[in-house]
Specification:
6 copies of one chain form a homohexamer.
Chain A lengths: L2 E4 L3 E5 L11 E7 L1 H11 L4 E8 L2 H12 L3 E7 L6 E5 L8 E5 L15 H5 L3 E5 L1 H5 L1 H16 L3 E5 L9 H11 L5 E5 H6 L7 H12 L3 E5 L5 E5 L2 E5 L12 H14 L4 H15 L11 H8 L9
Parallel strand pairs in A: 1-4, 1-8, 2-6, 4-5, 8-9, 9-10, 10-11
Antiparallel strand pairs in A: 2-3, 6-7, 11-12, 12-13
């Protein structure tokens, strides 16, 4: 198995167009979560991918697995008689209203997931293992399980990757910092938004300085600092690499960061160097912005076309 | 205020037509609950109605109040910073698949509602007060609050009504029986399905016997026993009244029982006798079956037309 | 031109499924009217058909002509700067609610249509001319125009046909009788529902007696009396012919009568005798009931299949 | 009651996306009108609001009241057996096609509304009373009723407000000027678009000059002149205040002006000064542009966020 | 791998409700084919299933694989640069119109599939191998490939099953008989509709006689003859077993036969005897009729509930 | 007949919004083709137009004719028992994904159309005859038929027009050049995109040079070279005319070129000079970009408004 990811996937309920939730009479119904988003993006770009989690044994849980399988990622799920299916309501809107998220994920089945529940042999057979800072934020149990899986993956020879992905609605920055720093010894590749580096990890300076500093302090193999429209910076092997964004007409911005990580890992796992991987990440992220829903339902040919600048016309 | 009801109203998410939840890509989005369904039906038929409850202060809570207001019932809501908005997923299907409900209502904001949270002056000003056996099943707090409100209403001179509405997914029949029987001293009018009378209240015999027996044992002013396609039986003032159902082409059966109760109360509160009220209940229930969603969005003229047998043609 | 019809075509706005108008957030949008329904059905079954009318010069008027052209009937329209586009709201429902129609057709552009507005050369070139009792009910001007066109058509050698189609929302039965009887001298073929014959034309007896009586009193070439599920009866050439209905699973009953007339005229105009024409009418009407909207969007092969009893299977 | 408004609310029928009316097969179905739009916006921002009008007693009239109640404004309606429900068809489009409106509002029930029809006690109990220049344009009766209600409100101590809102499809500018100027003696706060001030009220000069001039000529307490993307100017207490617009990604521009007035009145009625009120007006208008339909379905927190410049990110 | 099936899966395009194709403005978009339908049904009921085929390397081909994966069946696909994606248009309608299918499957990529294209190791590892008489009808190449795979499967120890599934639009009955009889020596379990047995295989007599006769003439281990509403008959081990249908409210009848086969094979492959398997087949078929689309998206618990007669109520 | 066009019209299947084909569950269903697009645009702007083609006698073929008739163009169709209905799948997307077209048009019925199949009397009666370079690319038969019709039209006195419209998915540029140049002797007005002139016709230089060169080499009456956002250039009567584009908010760019040609021809056929015609072409093209689907469903008044710069406001 090339890539195994671990985390929560929620059901996403969103009104059509820019309608308000309180007036909507129908909702679009999708499934999405940071770790499965990364798996799907990487899977679309050539990796064999598995998403590990725990779900309620219900039509809602099956909606999640059906969605992931359709997108090419294999769910390896502990089916549970207890615990809810996490849900979030998403209201898309332009400025100044902005997009609004209402989470309803408390007591999700995944919050009780222990290594004993999960098919850890998948983790032990992985080349890459990925999770995000959302997972340990969901429960104390999940924090322990996250640490266990990261350690287990690394011991089995996998490259481990973590995206900080701070969620202020789940925990405060002090708790988050302590928990995340306890995970860092098991992590090879760290992804962190510049803003999160500052407000959670208390880093100062610009993105290159943050990348280098984190790398030196925690001995990461690679640190990738993302900074929205200003692109990404990686520190790896003592060197700094910068990558700008590809322009995109944004249709649905949710999941852009996950697409970046998925593109990056797909390229690295297929032998690309850091420069290649950042380019793939940026191209996958740009394509994602044109696609409704949270996942980068792309093809390698589409990523190639972005990298070749070959995207302007209707091809007929 | 003519009628005040108290209970939980959930958001209802259902695939279009008979599609399966796990494959659906869009869901119809409505709001519904036994007690607000009763209030809406009675309100449509002429009563001034208020629905008392506690909701999360979010777009989801506001979806509930907007829906009820649109349907003519005034929500009197304690807005809460904690607690969820209850949700249920509904899959409509014909036989032999049958309609399937997935509840997701744990830890709803309403489960912590105390009399201190609520505008009890509304209850004290009511002519009729209604709740169902679902409400005390939701939490120990709600069981206490239900008892308090029933007692308070009765002391203030309201007629109090309770629909047993047993939900096996919420509590077992032994617990339900104990709790419900503790409420009965505060109840004037009891509605109970024959099936619930047997499995929860341990009643035997046919519907007339059940109605008479409950009335005698608990000193109810009126007991109405419903028995599905076989119609309803009431015991009141020492006499038994039977009411058959009006034929209907069923489009959406959910909420039929609540429509019956709403029609009954509307007529009683407007001076009808038991025979009148049972007829209005049965007519409202028949109309409900032709209407999508859980509520009887009817007019008095439509109920009259059913009672007059005046329903066969397109009027143009 | 084989068949020219004259009358009003309205826009039809209806909630999806059985939703109530007052809660609907979207409406299906179609165009329909008795006379254009007849033209479309006959056109689908082989006649060249024209629909004569007056419409407002607006996107709403163009919606009407685009719809008719798509269905194969040529609109010959006087475009007007004044007058509204007639609209009706339709709520489909099963029993006991029943289907409900809200007309909003007052002051439609067509109500001012005079022979001078219209391309009467079309009428003069027609083999068949058809209108319904709705048209003279819409305005005094239209009553005059209807009489003029019927007379003109007959003088030019066309067979003229009228469907009584009484609408109690448009006029009372006394006024209707007087007006209709003033048209009868110009009519060759009369279609009338048994119920309308009784309440408007004050006829008594069963359908065969009504058909014969009308024929004798007004010297019609043919009288066809329809009686819903009991089929139709024609009196022609001194003989009575009966036609039963073909069974149908009703999806949308509106327009069934117009489909019957369209099928009948199509067959007559193509040389069929009364027996043939009644069969085609009944088959077209049965097919119509399976089709959403007001018109019989059928093919000759489908009518043949009904007549051959050849309709039971999926053909693959 | 904090705010009472008086006027017509129509049903709005619009094709999805940018589809053309004449090809559309379904229409979105909403209710909207200048005066109820103002009431809804102000109600969402904290006022108790009532909308006074006359409606046909039909499912169409009930669609209007259900919509307003859902949005938090109480309809106080004279139900009528005669008169139509006004309707308008709206085709949204980008440049150079532009958005197109087809009105169908002639002979609406409201056009016959007299003070005797209406619950004028609501007007007499109001803190604020609002109507627009559309209302007197609809019929001579309504012009009289508008004058009566403005006078009555003012005598009862309400602040009266009028938005000129010139509609060239309803009356010519000379008639409009005469009628509006006959209302001005009863008006405290005048809202007028710079363009209307010029073409209807024959004002010259820039917006500040217009505001001051109108104020001096007609003795208004406040005059607010709006000028589209250039923001608004108020003249009040001898001073001029300017307010620029907040940038917005426009999803649906219809109703922007009403949202401005609603936000302004909400703030004034809650004690804000002119500067505050203009800011709230501008923020509410900017939010409106992101919301489908005619009304500003906003929350006070959203307006605060616009004023704080706190709108850039997904909050999670 | 428990079950491998081989055949064509098409894209299904159907108007919503009972709308006509020539007037539809949107189409439902699904994927379906006899052999993948069987695989999905069996997979839902517990088997590991693979569908073997050849598809165009395009978004249309990927729509097919995504759909099958979502439904739990693994596609093992030869991706092709040439050949089309087969499509069919389906118009659902009640009697007398009936459901109508327009195939557009000529030159599909699968028609050139040879054993060399396909991952035949899957066939060799299968416990069960299934195909239908549609597959050899699609091209001479496919006829050869079908024979090869059936022979290969049987030699590798699989139980081979064939459903005759005669399609008169693909070949005449004489050609079909010759081709099918050349496949029979490689087939263990034959499914055939009574009608096909008569018109294609020239069998006479009732279903039990047909089952026994085919079994004796071609040495099948099992023959199952289906006869629509009259249920199925199997001949196996010298004995005849009958199975009636379970009543169902039909929402979409397409795919009922495939659901029967899938349920049957699932039960047999999991150790059930013929009686069990026929019951599962009949229960799965009844459930299918309640589900939109061609596949039996069921659960084992639902099949159990049908067999237990436990389907009457909403469970809450 | 003012304008006759000849070519293929396909059915267009596209996911709503920017959804991906492989995940879509419903598709918009329209009909479109270069030559019918031109006919519709010209017909909307005042010409009587006929579209000549060959279609399968099926609901799919009838969907094409119903669509064209609704849009005001008369189809003159040879109905065929063999041959497919061409289809294309369209995925709309912003940059960098871009819009993607999947053609499925092989073996369409039209590919066998000969002059003997078609109602060539229409061509002989035409004032203008138009086809595009797509038509001869579809089959050798069609190449011959195209040449025959162009020659026939010209001999009958029509002005003949050809739009090069190169499709690399249909033929290579060398073949295309040879075939097109064999048509040029029969062509009066040539439309060609600058890009096609370069890659297919091997022209060099800027657009004015290309226009003049082609005109001189092939003796065209008029050559119009289009260059996307840079507008168009015509060479006619020894003079060069330039036309810039009108700004448009693009909703659906497909068919912009056809709208240009349709607007141009409409104006020329109604007596406009080259300058007028280019302006109408550009205005029609700009309007098209605001309209979903492939055709310019416009009115002359809308084109006038663009030319007058009179497009900025909602008119009410």
């Amino acid at each position: 198995m090339d890539l195994v990811t671990f985390g929560e996937t929620m059901l996403r309920l969103s009104p059509p167009g820019q309608e308000r939730l309180e007036r909507a009479t129908e909702l679009e119904f999708r499934a999405a979560g940071a770790e499965s988003n990364v798996a799907v993006a990487a899977g679309r770009l050539g990796l064999e991918t598995t998403w590990l989690s725990k779900l309620p044994d219900s039509p809602l849980g099956r909606k999640v697995t059906a969605t992931l399988r359709a997108q090419g990622t294999e769910p390896a799920v502990a089916w549970s008689e207890s615990g809810r299916q996490g849900v979030y309501f998403l209201e898309q809107a332009g400025e100044p209203r902005g997009t609004n998220v209402v989470y309803d994920r408390t007591d999700a089945a995944v919050t009780t997931a222990t290594p004993a529940d999960l098919d850890v042999s998948r983790v032990e057979a992985a080349d890459y293992f990925f999770t995000s800072g959302i997972t340990p934020a969901l429960s104390a149990t999940l924090a322990d399980t996250t640490r266990d899986l990261l350690a287990r993956a690394r011991e089995s020879g996998a490259t481990t990757a973590l995206d900080v992905n701070y969620r202020s609605k789940l925990w405060d920055s002090t708790t988050a910092r302590a928990e995340l720093e306890s995970l860092f010894p098991h992590v090879d590749v760290l992804f962190v938004a510049r803003r999160d580096a500052r407000r959670v990890l208390d880093r100062e300076g610009d993105a290159p300085a943050i990348a280098r500093g984190l790398s030196e302090d925690f001995d990461f193999g690679t640190v990738v600092v993302t900074r929205g429209e200003d692109g990404a910076v990686a520190f790896h092997g003592g060197e700094t690499v910068e990558q700008s964004v590809f322009e995109a007409e944004t249709h649905d911005a949710v999941g852009t960061g996950d697409a970046f990580v998925g593109g990056y890992i797909a390229r690295r796992a297929q032998g690309g160097d850091i420069v290649d991987a950042l380019e793939w990440g940026a191209a996958t992220a740009a394509l994602k912005r044109t696609i409704p829903g949270d996942v980068a339902l792309v093809t390698p040919a589409e990523v190639d076309a972005v990298l070749d600048g070959n995207t302007a016309d209707i091809d007929r």
